[in-house]
Amino acid sequence: MRALQLYEGAMSGDQPSYLKLRYTIENLTKNPSAQIVRYGHARPGILSMAQGEGEAPTPDFIIQGALKALQEGKTFYTPVLGIPELRQEIANYYVREYGFSLPTDRIFVTASGTTAIHLVLTALLDPGDEVVAVTPIWKNLLGATELQQASIKEVALSCDQDGIWSLDLQKLFDACTSKTKILLITTPSNPTGWTMAREEMKQVLDFARANDLWIVSDEVYGRLVYDGSRAPSFLDVAAPEDRLFTINSFSKAWAMTGWRLGWIVGPAEAESAIYDIALYDNMCPPSFTQYGAIEALRHGEAFLKEQITLWDNNRSVLKKRFDQMDRIRSAIPPATFYTLFQVDGEPDCLALARRLIDEVGLCLAPGCSFGKIGRGSLRLCFAVSEAKLNDALDRLESAIG
Ligand SMILES: Cc1ncc(COP(=O)(O)O)c(C=O)c1O
Fold first, then answer.
1. Core-most of 79, 84, 296, 326, by most CB within 10 Å?
2. Which of 228, 5, 267, 12 is nearest to 120 (CA)?
3. For the chain, what percent of residues have pLDDT higher than 90?
4. C-alpha of residue 249 to centroid of ligand 1, in Å
5. Which of 33, 90, 114, 142 to mutate to test the pocket of ligand 1 (most atoms within 8 A of CB)?
6. Atom of ligand 1 nearest to the CA of 137
C-alpha cells in the first residue's frame, strides 16, 4: 500500500492545495529516482547504486587546498562568478586537456553543475518557450526547464539490438518549431553513456545557427570516457560568439559531489546576464571549496586515471555478468559510470525498482526518471568496488531469476 502511494506521488504534483503555491510548483513532476532512493534508504542492509556518484572520497590533495583556504581565513563572499584564480585555472585546464584557449570572461564558476543549469535556463527561457531535449536525460534538466514554465519536447535516442544508442539528427531538427529556443543535449549522456560525435556536433551547430537556436550542452561527464582522455565538446566546433552554453561540474571527475561546484562556458557577452542571475540566486559559489577545485584541476589527472581504470574493470565485470543473465538487455556504455538496462518481462520499472528494494535490498534508479524513452529500464551506477558491484549483481540475479 505504501508503495502504491509512492508511485502515484512520484508521477504528479502532490502538494496540498490550501498552501496555494505557484501553479508551476503544484504541478511540478516528481523525480522517481529521488522517490525510490527515499523509499529504500532507511532499510537495513540496503545497497544503493541509484545515485550518481562514486564511492571514493575526495582525494586528500583537494581537501588540503580547501583546508588551507579555511585556515587562511578565506571564509567570505567571493566574486559572483568565482575567484579569478579558479577562472584562470579552468582556462588553463582547457588548454592542457582540450587543446584550446578560452578567455576567463567566458568562464563562470557556479555553486554546482545543477546551479549552472538553473542559471543558464533562467537566462534563456520565457514562459511558453520550447526546449527540445535529447532523451533519456538526467531528470533535473527537465525539472529545471519546468521551473521556467517552458515546455519540453523529447527527442529520443534510438537503441539498436546490441543496446547501442544513437541520435537521428533529422529527428532532432524536425522536432524544432518556431517556439523552440534551446536544443538541450547531455553528452556523454546520463543515463546511457551515448556520446555525440564531433561531426554530429558540427551539424547541430549549423542547424542552430541557421534557426537562431541556443545549444545547451551538459558536458559534466566529458572526462569519464573509456577510449581516449575526453569526449568531444561543443566548444571544439563553436565560435566564441555562438549561442552556446556548456555546463560542467567538479562532482564526477574529481569525486567532489558534496562540494557543490561547477562552471559554465558561454559567450563573453552573456557574462553580465549570468552575473546578475547568480547574484540574485545565491551571491557566489562557496569560498573555500573553490581553492580545493584549483588543486583538483592542477593535480587531478592521476586520480581521474585511477578511477577510470577501476570503472573500466567494472564495465568488464558487468558485461560478463549481464551476458550470463538471460533476461537482461543492455550494452556496456562508452562513457560515464552508468548502465541503463532492461529486464525482459518487466515493463514497469518503478514496480521493479520497488521489488528489488523489498526483496533483495538493492536500490536502482527507475528509467522513467529520464524521460519517456527510459520507461521500463533501470539505471545502475557502477562507480563502486568490484566486490560491491558483484554483490549488487548477485542481488539482481536472485530477484529476476
Ligand atoms: C548530466 C548531469 N548534469 C549535471 C549534474 C549535476 O552535477 P552537480 O553535482 O555539479 O550539481 C549531474 C549529476 O548527476 C548530471 O548527471
1. 296
2. 267
3. 92
4. 7
5. 114
6. 1
- Domains in the chain and their CATH numbers? 2-58+302-400 (3.90.1150.10), 76-299 (3.40.640.10)
CB 90 within 8 A of CB 298: no
Q: How far away, in angstroms, is 200 Cα from ligand 1 center?
A: 23
Q: Is 371 in the pocket of ligand 1 (CB under 6 A)?
A: no
Parallel/antiparallel/unpaired status of strands 47-48 and 362-363: parallel
pLDDT of residue 15: 64
Model pTM score: 0.95
C-alpha 250 to ligand 1 mean position (Å): 9
Is the beta carbon of 52 within 6 A of some atom in ligand 1?
A: yes
Residue-level pLDDT at 401: 79
- The tens digit of pLDDT for each residue in 277-311 reads 999 999 999 999 999 999 999 999 999 999 999 99
Between the CA of 50 and the centroid of ligand 1 the distance, in Å, is 14
Q: What pLDDT band is residue 150 in, cutting at 50, 70 and 90?
A: very high
pLDDT digits (tens, 9 = 90+) for 38-81: 999 889 999 999 999 999 999 999 999 999 999 999 999 999 99
Residue carrying the nine cell digits 566529458 = 222
Best CA proximity match to 255, nearest among 195, 311, 217, 300: 300
138 touches ligand 1 (CB under 6 Å)? yes
The reply to whether ligand 1 has any atom less than 6 angstroms from the CB of 113 is yes
**Best residue for ligand 1 mutational test, from 110, 117, 190, 192 (most atoms within 8 Å of Cβ):** 190
- Quick count: other Cβ atoms within 10 Å of Cβ 265? 24
Crossing angle of helices 2-11/32-40, nearest 10°?
150
Nearest CA to 293 out of 100, 83, 75, 78 is that of 83
User: What does R_g of the chain's alpha carbons equal in angstroms?
Assistant: 21
201: helix, coil or strand?
helix
Ligand 1 centroid to Cα of residue 98, in Å, is 20
Cα 100 to middle of ligand 1, angstroms: 24
CA separation for the pair 55, 233 (Å, rounded) = 27
